[in-house]
Here is the input.
Amino acid sequence: MQKRLQKGTYGYLNKNKIYAWKKAVLMLAVPVIIFLVAWAVHKTRENVMTVVAIVGCLPGCNQVVRAIMASRYHSIEEELYQEVEKAKGTCVVLYENVFTAYERTYYIDALVVLGREIVGYTSVTETDTKKAAEHIRELLKKNAYKQNVRIFPAGERKAYLERVKKLADMMPEEVPFKGDERYPGFTREEIVVHLIRAISL
Here is the structure.
């Protein structure tokens, strides 16, 4: 069985989409089989197993909704992935990030994390990059991590890659950090990356 990719990994969204639909089919197949077997045994649909099958469909229907949501997004193009990998140096990159806010959803192709800096790029032209950056910044701030967040819009791919190269060449800022009891053994940067994964779909 193939191992599931971790959030923030290139190819995650496409694999997650396939996984979500497989899970939905499996979860719906079980109550359908129960219903059909009970019908064949009792020669009627009017038996307690019909009720069990109907109730058993609810988790499957919920999974179908999740699968439909997952199908709205796709993995970033390989060319962009290769360009970011080439530019990032030793920086941590989180790919294929989907953040949900009350008013809208933000899709960020790549987020580079270095010290207090988070630099992202979105290929979705309608994305309000200032609001997307503010959303990420506020979510991290609520977890007691203050970060500088900037998201480059779809037309500024070259500028984004240049900024990533500059970050990769920089010495990371020394950020005071005494450890976090919620995440024992984690560095500050590892916690920030973990939190971004947690708030992304």
